[in-house]
């Protein structure tokens, strides 16, 4: 499971940034800073009577420190780079869009149309799926979900649109 | 004869037709997802968590537990036949198991894995039955400071025993603790990190987070990664029963693996994966002919497979007796208990003996079922491996969506899962192991509550944690663990154990 590989030639400043440890250090610092900013008005209280902000702010400071150490270590470590994933954007966008579409549709359009929506958008995530295969998958999943969730478990999800 | 009476209660519950059916269903689903790469027990249990709401608590837990240990069985099948670990706990099984398959001994390898797993499962079930009651009694004497220190020890151990960078694992735990605080502060009524979104004031559901990070995140990662070629051994599996020579070699390996897995499983952060890695290292070290390893040594299959099953099952001990999850799956089990309004902790055993002992008895029955599901039906599972991922991911994505929606009947939860899916993918890309985050998430609110109570008892003096002997002992253990992992010699060993894969 090796997702990293060594760069071929010397590393510019940009390559320095593309290391997993450097990026995760920056990510943790950013999350911590965001958390500190969000909790700026939370009452802290004292150790005896901890108020809403006590523990969150404590944790944010810890995360900030950890992120900084990870960042420094990442900069000093021997160079490793993220494996390029040219397909990643496609997968990220279509999977997220499929879920958001399903979430918005389920209450109004019902299970059947929501599944069609999810499969239709989700199928865009990979080039490997042929249109015929997508259609078969959608049909099979509709039958399966109805059998398991509606017939089998008796969940009260609307199956058809509520006119 | 308390023990016999308790087991009688347990089997009385576990042997009802409905619970037998749920144990079987769990074992089946567990084997299925164990065989299929790209979906693991964490995502599956998270997806099915909402469904257990409609079941009796004990039936739900029996099914979820079956999925967890069933996945350990199923994972070995893919490891041996396709050189592709169905679960991370089967990564080491690939090394020698697949070599055996290539030499035409797939049957013996599968049998060694199944027999080892069954033996380990039986031993681990007996261990839970024997050690849970005394541990729960210890737990009942714990106050807030002890609980807080115990959780600190648990989180530290989770870091030390996880693989990958220690610092990143600590950061992931802190991140999980922070996500756990989202929502309304139960003590003061103030809201935290809710961005003014109404749905967030109740906090984030553990199933939503786990489905997002492990279900959706894994789908994105698998799609983004170029598909790996599957090297299926297409032979007919002629001979399942191992030869006398095989039996002679695998018996001590099974015993060692079971012992090691049982111990490591109890430790927080332990469980199946660590046990398997450690058992492989142990077999190789203790073997008279270490050169055979990597070329189809049956000990290299029997040891780790026994260990991962033993570890998977003994990791229930801290969850059932102290209410403290040792790994992400146990964190979800706690979620399943709280869905039913059952407060996890030492009182479960005394207040709900039927639930407790029924679940333990079902584990033994489930292991027996798994032996039947796996060995004679192996051909069916092999066929499933031919199912390409491009069909699989659509089904997984749909079950994630329906699962999340039914937890809270809310559209917002589905959006949140999509968000955590992207977060999970980014974390995986940055080589940050997400499992410690789930642990932190579940323990976050508990730790805050116990910290507050402890401070109130002590009048705001943090010295209380070192003045109470049990609490001090737990903290010293945590400090020792941290020191150990900082020592260069130990750090090298730790990396070595995880390098075997």
Can you describe this structure?
- The complex is a heterodimer of chains A (163) and B (501).
- Chain A has 5 helices and 2 strands.
- By secondary structure, chain A is an all-alpha fold.
- The N and C termini of chain A lie far apart (50 Å).
- Chain A has a two-stranded antiparallel sheet.
- Chain B is mainly alpha-helical and 501 residues long.
- In chain B, helix 1 packs across helix 16, helix 2 (17-35) packs across helix 16 and helix 6 (106-140) runs parallel beside helix 10.
- Chains A and B meet through helix 2, helix 3, helix 4 and helix 5 of A and helix 8, strand 2, helix 9, helix 18 and helix 19 of B.
Detail the topology: elements first, then pairings:
The complex is a heterodimer of chains A (163) and B (501).
Chain A: E1 4-5, H1 13-17, H2 20-38, H3 54-76, E2 81-82, H4 88-122, H5 131-152
Antiparallel strand pairs in A: 1-2
Chain B: H1 2-14, H2 17-35, H3 41-52, H4 57-82, H5 91-102, H6 106-140, H7 144-161, H8 166-181, E1 183-184, E2 191-192, H9 206-224, H10 244-266, H11 272-286, H12 299-314, H13 316-322, H14 328-339, H15 347-351, H16 353-374, H17 378-384, H18 389-408, H19 411-429, H20 435-458, H21 464-467, H22 469-486, H23 488-499
Helix pairs in contact in B: 1-16, 2-4, 2-16, 3-4, 3-9, 3-14, 3-18, 4-5, 4-6, 4-12, 4-14, 4-16, 5-6, 5-12, 6-10, 6-12, 6-13, 6-16, 7-8, 7-20, 7-22, 8-20, 9-18, 9-19, 10-11, 10-12, 11-12, 14-20, 18-19
């Amino acid at each position: 499971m090796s997702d990293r590989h060594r760069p071929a030639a010397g590393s510019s400043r940009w390559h320095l940034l593309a290391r997993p440890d450097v990026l995760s250090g920056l990510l943790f610092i950013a999350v911590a800073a965001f958390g500190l900013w969000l909790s700026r008005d939370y009452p802290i209280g004292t150790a005896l009577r901890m108020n809403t902000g006590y523990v969150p702010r404590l944790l944010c400071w810890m995360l900030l420190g950890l992120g900084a150490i990870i960042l420094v270590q990442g900069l000093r470590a021997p160079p490793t780079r993220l494996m390029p994933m040219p397909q990643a954007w496609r997968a990220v966008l279509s999977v997220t869009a499929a879920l958001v579409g399903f979430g918005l549709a389920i209450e109004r359009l019902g299970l059947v149309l929501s599944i069609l929506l999810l499969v239709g958008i989700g199928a865009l995530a990979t080039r490997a799926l042929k249109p015929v295969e997508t259609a078969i998958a959608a049909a099979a999943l509709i039958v399966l979900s109805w059998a398991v969730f509606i017939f089998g478990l008796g969940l009260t999800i609307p199956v058809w649109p509520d006119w | 004869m308390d023990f016999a009476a308790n087991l009688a209660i347990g089997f009385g519950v576990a042997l009802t037709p409905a619970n037998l059916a749920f144990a079987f269903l769990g074992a089946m689903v567990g084997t299925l997802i164990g065989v299929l790469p790209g979906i693991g027990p964490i995502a599956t249990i998270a997806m099915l968590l909402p469904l257990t709401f409609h079941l009796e608590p004990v039936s739900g837990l029996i099914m979820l537990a079956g999925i967890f240990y069933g996945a350990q069985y199923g994972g070995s099948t893919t490891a041996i036949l396709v050189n592709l670990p169905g679960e991370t706990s089967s990564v080491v099984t690939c090394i020698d198991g697949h070599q055996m398959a290539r030499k035409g001994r797939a049957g013996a390898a599968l049998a060694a894995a199944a027999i080892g797993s069954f033996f380990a499962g039986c031993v681990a079930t007996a261990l839970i039955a024997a050690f849970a009651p005394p541990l729960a009694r210890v737990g009942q004497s714990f106050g807030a400071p002890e609980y807080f220190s115990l959780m600190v020890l648990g989180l530290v151990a989770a870091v030390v025993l996880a693989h990958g960078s220690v610092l990143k694992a600590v950061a992931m735990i802190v991140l999980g603790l922070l996500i756990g605080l989202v929502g309304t502060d139960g003590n003061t009524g103030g809201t935290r990190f809710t961005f003014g979104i109404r749905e967030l004031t109740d906090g984030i559901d553990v199933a939503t987070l786990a489905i997002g990070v492990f279900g959706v995140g894994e789908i994105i990662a698998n799609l983004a990664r170029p598909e790996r070629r599957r090297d299926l051994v297409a032979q007919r599996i002629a001979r399942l029963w191992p030869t006398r020579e095989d039996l002679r070699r695998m018996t001590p390996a099974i015993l060692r693996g079971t012992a090691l897995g049982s111990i490591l499983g109890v430790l927080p952060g332990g469980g199946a994966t660590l046990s398997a890695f450690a058992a492989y290292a142990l077999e190789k070290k203790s073997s008279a002919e270490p050169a055979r390893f990597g070329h189809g040594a049956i000990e290299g299959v029997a040891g780790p497979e026994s260990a991962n099953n033993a570890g998977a099952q003994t990791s229930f001990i801290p969850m059932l007796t102290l209410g403290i999850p040792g790994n992400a799956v146990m964190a979800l089990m706690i979620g399943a208990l709280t869905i039913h309004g059952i407060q996890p902790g030492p009182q479960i055993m005394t207040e709900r003996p039927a639930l407790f002992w029924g679940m333990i008895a079902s584990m033994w029955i489930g292991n027996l079922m798994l032996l039947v599901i796996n060995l004679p039906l192996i051909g069916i599972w092999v066929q499933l491996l031919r199912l390409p991922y491009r069909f699989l991911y659509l089904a997984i994505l749909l079950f994630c969506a329906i699962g999340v929606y039914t937890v809270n009947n809310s559209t917002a939860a589905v959006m949140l899962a999509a968000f955590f899916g992207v977060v999970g993918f980014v974390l995986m890309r940055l080589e940050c192991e997400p499992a410690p985050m789930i642990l932190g998430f579940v323990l976050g609110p508990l730790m805050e509550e116990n910290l507050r109570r402890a401070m109130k008892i002590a009048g705001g003096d943090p010295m209380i944690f070192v003045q109470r002997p049990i609490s001090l002992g737990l903290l010293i253990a945590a400090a020792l663990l941290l020191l150990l992992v900082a020592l260069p010699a130990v750090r090298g060993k730790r990396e070595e154990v995880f390098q075997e894969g």
